[in-house]
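In this section we turn from sequence analysis to structure. A common task in structural bioinformatics is to predict how a protein folds when a small molecule is present, because the ligand can shape the pocket around it. The inputs are simple: the amino acid sequence and a SMILES string for the ligand, here zinc ion. Study the lines below before reading on.
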Amino acid sequence: MSSPSHPTPALDCVQFRRLIPLHVGGDLSDAGQHPFDHHASGCGDCTEHLAGYRAQCGLLSTYGRDLESGRRTPDLWSSIERKLDHRWRP
Ligand SMILES: [Zn+2]
């Protein structure tokens, strides 16, 4: 798969789910956030998936505060990276 230089206008479910960790970690760019929100508003399955991921992250309440304020905890981030599809490169 090639990477286009322009943002993809629409996400499919696989792409959306790959972006969830970035979205939750606050690493999604504005250009990525728009199609992300658009897909979430139209896809119940992915909305549920996102809610589940957020709930999972909510368990890490101490680190969650760091994520929300935009500071990443290196240990947590490396654990998130391990969960990411290895084919995904931000
Ligand atoms: Zn979807």
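Residues 13-83 form one domain. As an exercise, try to locate the residues that line the zinc ion site and compare them with your own expectations.
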